[in-house]
Predict the 3D structure of the following.
Amino acid sequence: MGAGLRLRPQANALGLPGPPTLDAVYDIALSVSACVRSGTRADVAWMVSPVVSDDALAFTPGGGRIGSVAAGAFDGLLADAAERRLPEGRRIAHRVTDFESVVCGLPPGTPVEFLIVPADQLPAEIWPLLLERRPVAIATALRDEVVTAVGVTSWEGAEERERELLAAARPTVIETDEGLVTVLAPVERLVVAGQGPYAEALADQGRLLGWKVVVESRPELVAGLAAALSPLDSIVVMGHDVESSSRCLMGALEGDAGYVGALGSRAMQQARADWLAYRDVTDLDRVHGPAGLDIGARSPVEVAVAIAAQILASRPRPGEGQ
């Protein structure tokens, strides 16, 4: 990056209904990097206007797709570009159709722009950075809508202005004299395993903070997702069924979630601990139970604020470990 940066006036999320899926560029990095290592063609696409997020979509030979952008509204458009198998990336301009509007929530006629780049045109150093869920800046040099060069910048070696953008930890697109810079930052995920007023209040609080929130009323279905969470992510387990909520906690403890919280009575907390101990899971130091800072919270909304505050207090500060 460098001089001549111009932030584009863009939103940071589509605000689409429904729970988010693991569609971020960070989530698909392992699969795409494996394609690069094996010499398999993969094309990576992301939206640069009018919405900026960390969502990305990769196309592989034979019609394979990994991830999602804008709820899949523009998959056909991007798939057509990927099928051309061009040696260099492209910037694609388009206007939202009536059908696409229903899917993505953008008004018909809205101008949208995407970048689609062959994975082997991306610098090799990008993959370990994405796998470690670090903020990165991808600089794409453009000439007549053709991506002529791609560079990547992380915290190390970044200039002061670049560090400000990376530390802001939100997806952004910047216009430069040479092309576009996409600043990607992993968005925190909050998994709420449970249902009822406390789960709803916590989900609302997470969305207010800009987190990707997944709410699942059946904790037993969250165990796999819990094990796949990163140190940036959080999970709070609720529920009155000892086995299902304990199984969810076990999944979280097997993974790398940065925050693991549990709600329930003292008797429920002990019952879960006994269930886990019977399965040789005895180190519960990572579990915040009961979840939330001790602020005298009583109502669901107050408990949600206390939990969110505890999550914020436990997360790394900008630049730590970068």
